[in-house]
Design brief:
449 residues, alpha/beta, TIM Barrel, Rossmann fold
Length: 449
């Protein structure tokens, strides 16, 4: 049962030292109770207290990390069934499957696409995350060779090692050279040996049953043996069964706190169909409901990109707008004679405006004012994009040292602010730009200081 802030407060040293980056122990305790801070941030609590509070305040779905130190991948830590209740915490991991019985060309094709298929959107790089390496024949040497080849081409990629043979998995783990993969899978007939490997190598273990019930039974036995880092595969290999099982596992873990189900899950659209488009549709269901890892047979731009966008939309905080940092952004290599534009820091506004400016080929300075993620008109109505605030930002930004003119271009919707802003910014000429960003290219080409 979760501890309250007051209960956590009683376990703290009450120094109010601020070394945890929170001014007082009470405030820190409240943050820990709300899941906004880690008890380990306090340097003065004992290991016993860390364990006690950590277990009590842990989310219903355990956080699992694997990969290299510099490129670890994290799943789990989910606390709700529906995104609007709070938010979804860790984005779904998208993996590509390679097998020991594939041709060298097929393997290299998948690994190269893993490295190359990357997309920039709202300031983020969207890409596949994981590589699943499957032992298809029980050949230990072949499995080790494929792991080494993968690590050479994709050195930072977190791995999932898949084999029914514990000895093959052990050999594969040794070939990882310090990289900690997820291993797959503990089943009813081998879970004890798989547990030994997981415990010895300190790597997370995937559990696979024939259904939700058997999966939870194996999970319960592994928990009793002392293992804590598990990932669940219910065995579903149809879209209907996957949707039902994923929903059941999420519900009984978040709503009913059923511990054997309180782990991230993995789904295999690659084993449900040979049709790439249908596979992508099934993967889309898994991204939304509620897989932590999706394994695909191959990566293709036309199917990967929509999945990445779906994931981006689902795994953003609905209560917090996406923003870019307040700053001066040079576009197209501006100089002292280039135009100066100002707009808000709502990420969509920034990327639309910067995209149009970049497309104009006109070197420009783009000033981004912090409006707490509100769009231009909303920020203006809320008093966060007023003349005095814009003037203060322009003065402190340092843009006056970068240009030899004093012309500031404001969004067309703020035309009524022109006179007031000229009063606030003495010596500056305020120019009113177009209302729509799409009109910026022609406007900038005709612009004169």
């Amino acid at each position: 049962m979760a501890l309250t802030g007051i209960q956590i407060m009683k376990l703290l040293p009450k120094k109010n030292c601020g070394e945890c980056a929170v001014p007082t122990c009470l405030a820190f305790a409240m943050k820990v109770a709300a899941g906004q801070a880690d008890i380990a941030a306090c340097p003065y609590v004992s290991e016993e207290v860390k364990e006690q509070v950590g277990e009590a305040s842990a989310p219903p779905i355990r956080t699992i990390k694997f990969g290299s130190d510099g490129a670890a991948f994290q799943i789990g830590a989910e606390t709700c069934l529906y995104r609007h209740e709070k938010r979804f915490e860790n984005p779904v991991g998208i993996a590509v499957l390679i097998k020991t019985d594939m041709s060298e060309d097929d393997i290299n094709s998948r690994l190269n696409k893993f490295n190359l298929l990357r997309y920039e959107r709202v300031g983020l790089i969207l890409k596949a995350d994981l590589i699943a390496i499957k032992d298809a024949s029980g050949n230990e040497a072949g499995f080790v060779s494929l792991i080494e080849h993968t690590r050479k081409i994709c050195p930072d990629a977190p791995l999932i090692l898949m084999s029914d043979n514990p000895s093959v998995l052990s050999a594969g783990l040794k070939a990882c050279n310090g990289h900690k993969p997820l291993i797959y899978a503990a089943k009813a007939d081998n879970f004890e040996k798989m547990a030994e490997i997981s415990r010895e190598m300190a790597v997370p273990l995937c559990v696979k049953g024939q259904n939700v019930g058997e999966t939870c039974e194996i999970s319960e036995k592994l928990i009793a043996s002392g293992l804590k880092d598990l990932v669940l595969d219910s065995g579903a290999r149809t879209v209907k069964a996957m949707l039902e099982d994923q929903t059941v596992l999420r519900r009984i873990s978040t709503k009913h706190k059923f511990k054997p189900a309180g782990f991230p899950t993995i789904a295999f659209p690659c084993e449900m169909t040979d049709d790439p488009m249908l596979e992508a549709m099934i993967a889309g269901v898994g991204v939304a409901k509620y897989a932590s890892i999706i394994v695909l047979s191959d990566l293709n731009g036309e199917t990967l990109f929509p999945l990445l966008l779906e994931r981006l939309n689902l795994f953003t905080d609905p209560q917090r707008p996406m923003v870019v940092q307040e700053d001066i952004y040079p576009i197209n290599g501006p100089n002292e004679n280039s135009p100066v534009l100002v707009t808000c820091n709502f990420s969509l506004t920034y990327f639309i405006v910067s995209g149009e400016v970049e497309g104009s080929k006109v070197p420009s300075w783009l000033l981004i004012k912090d409006t707490e993620g509100l769009s231009v008109l909303t920020a203006w109505a809320a008093g966060k994009f007023s003349a005095d605030l814009i003037a203060g930002f322009v003065k402190k930004s340092g843009i006056a040292e970068k240009v030899n003119h004093r012309n500031l271009l404001i969004p067309g919707y703020l035309a009524s602010m022109k006179g007031e802003l000229e009063e606030e910014l003495s010596g500056w000429n305020i120019q009113v730009g177009p209302r729509e960003a799409s009109h910026l290219p022609s406007f900038l080409r005709d612009w004169k200081a």
